[in-house]
């Protein structure tokens, strides 16, 4: 579905990604793990056209490296950044409707689906998004992205700063995405969460992929876990 090959990324003169290569398969949850500063978030930004890159990013057989971010989004890739990026002066419901790419085309997700998944959003649908808690804003960002009906959703650190109960909700939500045929690239630092719900795991270190395999394979690889994951 998504194939990354020999991907290099730069912030000015800083060379951040060094020949990254991996694939995301249809109908799978793929976890991208690593310590802070390993290049995980930069990889997501590179896929979405938000940083200077060289290499290849193939989406459903089409090269998308060099396309603008909105063009990539319209091809069916949704992106939930770590910064959440809600519209603080708009209500919850207005934020959700802004996520729709077309009011004329019905997607796999409706406003009712969002409220069923996270009832708290319905309770606060007329509340300005900027006054909500961090956990509520995370729910909102996830749901707003889904309203665009993506085939792949890239989620950067969705559990960062959330209470344990909300983390469990997010994990259930990601499993529900898979049931509905949406592939997930999960960028996460919490090893247990990612390994519990993912089909395949990749580990990044110093801007390169140092491990690709199953969650069970990663559990058994003590060197990778100690060298690249445990902090």
What does this structure look like?
Helices cover 36% and strands 27% of the residues. The chain is α/β, with parallel strands linked by helices and 231 residues long. Strands 6-7-8-3-9-10 form a 6-stranded mixed β-sheet, sandwiched between helices. A hairpin with a 2-residue loop joins β9 and β10. α3 packs parallel to α6. The two termini are 32 Å apart.
Describe the structure concisely.
With 231 residues, the protein is an alpha/beta fold.
Quickly give the CATH architecture: 3-Layer(aba) Sandwich
**CATH domain topology:** Rossmann fold
E-strand count: 10
Q: How much is the average pLDDT?
A: 90
Mind summarizing the main beta sheet? 6 strands, mixed
Reading the helices and strands in chain order gives: EEEHEEHEHHHHEHEHEEHH
The portion of residues forming beta strands comes to 25-35%
DSSP helix count? 10
Main structural class: alpha/beta
- The top-level CATH class is Alpha Beta
**C-alpha Rg, in Å?**
17 Å
Query: What share of the residues lie within helices?
Result: 25-40%
- Main sheet: strand order: 6-7-8-3-9-10
List low-confidence stretches.
none
Give the number of domains. Answer: 1
Distance between the termini: 32 Å
In CATH, the homologous superfamily goes by the name P-loop containing nucleotide triphosphate hydrolases
Net shape: globular
Annotate the secondary structure layout:
Blueprint: E1 2-11, E2 14-24, E3 29-34, H1 40-47, E4 52-59, E5 62-63, H2 69-74, E6 77-80, H3 92-98, H4 111-117, H5 119-123, H6 134-146, E7 152-156, H7 164-179, E8 183-187, H8 191-197, E9 200-205, E10 208-213, H9 215-220, H10 222-229
Parallel strand pairs: 3-8, 3-9, 6-7, 7-8
Antiparallel strand pairs: 1-2, 1-4, 4-5, 9-10
Helix pairs in contact: 3-6
């Amino acid at each position: 579905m998504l194939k990354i090959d020999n991907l290099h990324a730069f912030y000015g003169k800083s060379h951040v990604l060094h020949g990254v290569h991996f694939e995301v398969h249809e109908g799978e949850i793929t976890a991208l793990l690593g310590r802070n500063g390993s290049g995980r978030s930069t990889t997501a930004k590179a896929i979405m056209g938000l940083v200077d890159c060289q290499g290849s990013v193939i989406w459903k057989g089409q090269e998308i490296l060099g396309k603008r971010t909105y063009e990539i989004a319209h091809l069916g890739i949704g992106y939930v950044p770590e910064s959440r990026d809600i519209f603080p002066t708009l209500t919850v419901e207005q934020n959700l409707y802004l996520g729709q790419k077309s009011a004329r085309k019905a997607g796999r997700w409706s406003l009712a689906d969002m409220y069923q998944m996270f009832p708290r959003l319905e309770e606060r649908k007329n509340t300005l998004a900027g006054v909500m808690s961090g956990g509520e804003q995370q729910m909102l960002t996830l749901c707003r992205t889904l309203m665009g009906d993506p085939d792949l959703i890239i989620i950067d650190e969705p559990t960062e700063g959330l209470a344990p109960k909300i983390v469990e909700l997010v994990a259930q939500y990601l499993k529900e995405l898979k049931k509905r045929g949406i592939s997930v690239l999960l960028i996460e630092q919490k090893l247990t969460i990612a390994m519990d719900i993912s089909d395949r795991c990749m580990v990044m270190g110093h801007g390169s992929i140092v491990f690709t395999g199953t969650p069970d394979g990663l559990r058994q690889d003590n060197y990778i876990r100690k060298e690249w994951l445990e902090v």
